[in-house]
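for ur thesis appendix - threonine-phosphate decarboxylase. copy paste whatever u need, i formatted it the way the template wanted (i think)
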Amino acid sequence: MKWPNHGGKSESIKQLLDININEELLDFSANLNPLGPPSWLKETLTNHYETVTCYPDPSYSKSSAAVANHEEIEQDSILLTNGGAEAIFLVAKFFEKGKALIVQPTFVEYERACKHYHIEVEDVFYEQTNGFALPMSVIREKLKEKDVIFLCRPNNPTGTVIAEKDLQLLLTEGKKTGTYVVVDEAFVDFLPASTPSLSKWLASYPNLILLRSLTKMYTIPGLRIGYLMAHPSIIRILKNEQLPWSINSLVDAVVPKLLEDKSFVEDTKAWLREQSEYLSEALPPMDFYLSPTQVNFYLLQDKKQPNRTEELFYFLVKHGILPRHTQNFKGLKGEFLRFAIRSKEENQRLVAILQNWRVES
Ligand SMILES: Cc1ncc(COP(=O)(O)O)c(C=O)c1O
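the 3d part is after this line
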C-alpha cells in the first residue's frame, strides 16, 4: 500500500482503502489545536487585506520585535520563517554535506531536509520499553563524530518530552565536540506553563538552535509562520540563505496579535488537561497502550494484537475516524496509530469505536 507522507487527506485515504462512505472522516490525523484558530483571526486578516498590495517589510520588524518580546531574547537571535518547515530546511542547509544524528521515530522532514543537502544521516532509536526516553548512552557515544543532532521536543509522533538534564548534558558535550543540537519545539506551546522555555539557554549554549512553529497552537497551517532562534552569528548566515519575502504581509500583520493572545493558549491548555486525563483513564483498561505524551497527540497500540494495526486503521476509517498511520515513522514497525486529542464529544466517539473494535476483533 502507498501510504501518504503526512496526515489529513481524508478522500485519498478512503480511495486507497476502497471504502465507500459519503460522510467526511473525523480527522484525528492532523495534530492541530481543535479550539483554533482564535475567533478574531478572520476579521483581522480581512482588515489587513490591503497589505497584499505591497511587498512586506523585508525585516519584518514588528513581528520580529513581538517574537523577541515573547521569548525575552534579542531580535538578532531570531529569524522568522515560512513555517517550521522552512526553518528545518534552512538549518539543514547550514550543515550541508555534514554528518547528522536523528533520533527516531520522529518528524520525517529532518531526514528529507538532510538528504536534500547531502548530509550523511545516522539513526538511533527511542524504545517503547523505555517510555520513549532519549537513548543517552548511544547518543553520547556517537555525538563526537557528528556535526548536528536533530531532536524534536515534544517529539512527534510520541508526544514525549526530553528531560532537561539530558539536553543540558548533550549541549555541554556538544560544545566540546563542535556538535550543534537542533531542537524542534513545534509543539512546545501545549506544555504546562511550568515548563521553562529553552530560549533562555541560547546565551549559555552557542551550539543550540531552536525551531518553532505557530501552525499547531493557532491552527494556521495555511498561513505558514514559524521562527528559528540561535546565536546571532548563525542567524546572519541563515538570513542570507533565505528566499526574499519568505513570509507574506498578512501573516506579518497578525503575528504580534497571535502572540499577545494568552487567554487562547490558556483555554487550550485547560481543554488539553481535561481531555488527556479522560483518554488516559478510558483507553488503558481496554488494553490499549498510550505513549506518555504531554501534548495534543499520542501514539496508540492495540496491546493484544499489535500486528493487526492495519486492520484497526481500516476499521476506524470505515467508522468515520481518520487516524495517522505510522508506516513512515522509523522504528514503530507500523504497530501504532497516532491520534490528535480533539473535543470531548469527538474523543468520546473515538473511545466508543475502539470499544467496538475490542469486542468485534
Ligand atoms: C515536529 C514538527 N515540526 C515542524 C512541523 C512543520 O510545521 P509548519 O511548517 O506547518 O510550521 C511539523 C508539522 O507537522 C511538525 O510535526
